[in-house]
Design a protein that fits this description.
650 residues; Rossmann fold; alpha/beta; binds thiamine diphosphate; binds magnesium ion; 1-deoxy-D-xylulose-5-phosphate synthase; binds 1-deoxy-D-xylulose-5-phosphate; 7-stranded mixed beta sheet; 17 strands; globular; isoprene biosynthesis
């Protein structure tokens, strides 16, 4: 019997269906509304799972922004957007908040198509100031007096893109309000000089500019923060009380202030709203997970949670039938690093998500968390490789997109042996299209001298990590999906694979399924059905998207009536390169029946994985349908003899 308590009454929240309903509330009522909003957020996420800590950290800021400004006319842009659940509850989506991250439900991030209160979509970090400046300059051209407010976390502020935007905003001088939500947390504790700098700021600079509007922040921070501020103050005594970095960049700076104290936040926002000049940065000190003890006490502040029991905070954990690909990767890398001291590992602010936290426990000096800085991570690895080290750059497929020019210009062009460990390759479920690892095959297989591998199960992943470790002749990448493996027997040690060699998993004679990656299991299931229909089916695991196993592909095409490639990636990846090969070798001239199954040329919205694969037409049913279409003569059951007639002969 779940000990879930019924959610507490929310009399004020029940009266707020749109932010304009907040205009008539007193400051005291806004404080009550914030408490109710926090409880509703906790209750909703206890049902849906998702990103909890970040949203709890901005409840008061969200209430204050919507109470003071006139959204959606005034544009409110959240950075990353994982903290937007309280915002969605206040902006007409409370009735659907328990559909968060579900099929046909609300997105877990801000999304333009979902609401006018979401003027700009997010999910990848550090985009809010650039987007906000775009809105501000557009507003100026249109002669409007609207406000643009960006809420960006201290983690997101560690990415280069944020500085590019600050630099430009300070130079342009457009009216722009940037609220730095400083909770001294990224997903993991923040890293880098910027996080140290921010700590100094709130230690040494009592509130400036708007003292009349808010009391001296440090003395009024909640005890846990105040203690930290005092500790930091002793560390940085003698700090020159000059302009902050933000002021040097052309921003007015207001802060630090307590980002949970509406008696500070409201007057600051009201004052800033009346200002009519340039960019201003408001430095709010908050706590990730604020107001929910299990989150506040957790090391990760409940950054990302599954559904949980509100009373205890205990999360519902799915029973793992096999180790996760992430864990398998980390353990395989540790095994390689045990015998090769030149192996080092780099993450961009995601040590836990990539499994490098495990590597760091074993080799603390050989793991580098560079912050949310994928571009830097890639070129940092290029430098490491050029110096003779063996860097493994572990970045999710979707986030690696952020460092693409660095991959081309700094790694591939110089043939530097950087090893890319590409987790979350393929569809990722509840995070939806912003996080899908759809494009890495396309953006890597077109690069000369790149070796691109895709693990079909967790045992293969171990071998591919060993292969990447051994491969120093140019850059390489191993891609593998989010979630658990298949439960295959695990090898004791990784075997170095022969580069560019695939493998036949099941022999057949009429139809060939050439799989890349973990769709192999679906291919084997489809092959069983095809065999039962009298169509003898071969299943091959390509293993390498680049270099292709040309001998294998040509023999499959020549010796079968139908060849179907299957990959969990967008068009322009593995299947495209197979088609290039077959075209170049004249195989297509002879009417070879080819189909290439890829992710569709559209974004797949969040849902349960099995529903997404069905929608993407990348499951066993779709493979069967593709075989039927390739035969092209009615349903397979009725025409097995015709297939035999269509077997290609040399
Ligand atoms: C380009 C990019 N890299 C990595 C991530 C993964 N990520 C999501 S939230 C987050 C930490 C954000 O920290 P912060 O901005 O301080 O927000 P908080 O969670 O503390 O509210 C990271 C690294 C991302 N969304 N985008
Ligand atoms: C908000 C964000 O970008 C990360 O928290 C991401 O959602 C993590 O994804 P995984 O849950 O696959 O590690
Ligand atoms: Mg933070």
């Amino acid at each position: 019997m779940s000990s879930r308590k019924m959610p507490s009454p929310t009399p004020l929240l029940d009266q707020v269906t749109e932010p304009r309903d907040m205009k008539r509330l007193s400051d005291r009522q806004l404080r009550q509304l914030a408490d109710e909003l926090r409880r509703e957020t906790i209750d909703a996420v206890s049902v849906t799972g998702g990103h909890l800590g970040a949203g709890l950290g901005v409840v008061e800021l969200t209430v204050a922004i919507h109470a003071v400004f006139d959204t959606p006319k005034d544009r409110l842009i959240f950075d990353v957007g994982h903290q937007c659940y309280p915002h969605k509850i206040l902006t007409g989506r409370r009735d659907r908040i328990r559909t968060l991250r579900k099929g046909n439900g609300l997105s877990g991030f801000t999304k333009r198509s979902e609401s006018p209160y979401d003027p700009f979509g997010a999910a990848h970090s550090s985009t809010s100031i650039s987007a906000g400046l775009g809105f501000a300059v557009g507003r100026d051209f249109q002669g409007s007096d609207d406000h643009v407010i960006c809420v960006i976390g201290d983690g997101a502020m560690s990415a280069g893109m944020a500085y590019e935007a600050l630099n430009n905003a300070g130079a342009l001088g457009s009216r722009l309000i940037v609220i730095l939500n400083d909770n001294a947390m990224s997903i993991a504790p923040p890293v880098g000089a910027m996080s140290k700098y921010l700590a100094r700021l709130y230690a040494a600079r009592p509130l400036q500019d708007l003292k009349s509007a808010a009391r001296n922040a440090v003395d009024h921070l909640p005890p846990p923060l105040r203690e930290g501020a005092r500790r930091a103050r002793t560390l940085v005594k003698g700090l020159v009380p000059g302009a902050t970095l933000f002021e040097e960049l052309g921003f007015s700076y207001v802060g630090p202030f307590d980002g949970h104290d509406l008696s500070q936040i409201l007057p600051i926002l009201r004052t800033v709203k009346e200002r009519s000049d340039g960019p201003v940065l408001l430095h709010a000190i908050t706590r990730k997970g604020k107001g929910y003890r299990p989150a506040e006490e957790a090391a990760d502040k409940y950054h990302g949670v599954s559904s949980f029991d509100v009373a205890s905070g205990t999360q519902v954990k799915s029973v793992a039938k096999a180790p996760s690909y992430t864990k398998v990767f980390a353990d395989a890398l540790i095994q390689e690093a045990e015998r090769d001291a030149s192996i080092v590992a780099v993450t961009a602010a995601m040590p836990d998500g990539t499994g490098l936290d495990r590597f760091a426990k074993r080799f603390p000096s050989r793991m580098f968390d560079v912050g949310i800085a994928e571009q830097h991570a890639v070129t940092f690895c290029a430098g490491l490789a050029a110096s003779g080290m063996k860097p493994f750059c572990a970045i999710y497929s979707t986030f690696l997109q952020r460092g693409y020019d660095q991959i081309v210009h700094d790694v591939a062009l110089q043939r530097l042996p950087v090893r890319f460990a590409i987790d979350r390759a393929g569809l990722v479920g509840a995070d939806g299209p912003t996080h899908a690892g759809s494009f890495d095959l396309g953006y890597l297989c077109n690069l000369p001298d790149f070796t691109v591998m895709a693990a079909s199960d967790e045992a293969e992943l171990v071998h591919m990590v060993a292969t990447a470790a051994a491969l120093s002749d140019g850059p390489s990448a191993v891609r593998y999906p989010r979630g658990q493996g298949t439960g295959v027997e695990m090898p004791r040690v990784g075997q170095v694979l022969e580069i560019g060699r695939g493998r036949i998993v099941k022999e057949g004679t009429q139809i060939a399924l050439l799989s890349l990656g973990t769709r192999l299991q679906e291919c084997l299931a489809a092959a069983e059905r095809l065999d039962a229909m009298g169509l003898s089916t071969t299943v091959a695991d390509a293993r390498f998207a680049k270099p292709l196993d040309e001998a294998l592909i040509l023999s499959l095409a020549r010796e079968h009536a139908v060849l179907i490639t299957i990959e969990e990636g967008a068009r322009g990846g593995f299947g495209a390169h197979v088609l290039h090969l077959l075209a170049e070798r004249g195989i297509l001239d002879r009417g070879c029946r080819i189909r290439t199954l890829t992710l569709p040329d559209r974004f797949i919205q969040q849902d349960k994985p099995e529903a997404m694969y069905a929608e993407a037409e990348l499951d066993r049913t779709a493979i069967l349908a593709a075989a039927e279409a390739a035969i092209g003569l009615g349903t397979i059951e009725r025409q097995p003899e015709i297939v035999r007639l269509h077997r290609l002969r040399e």
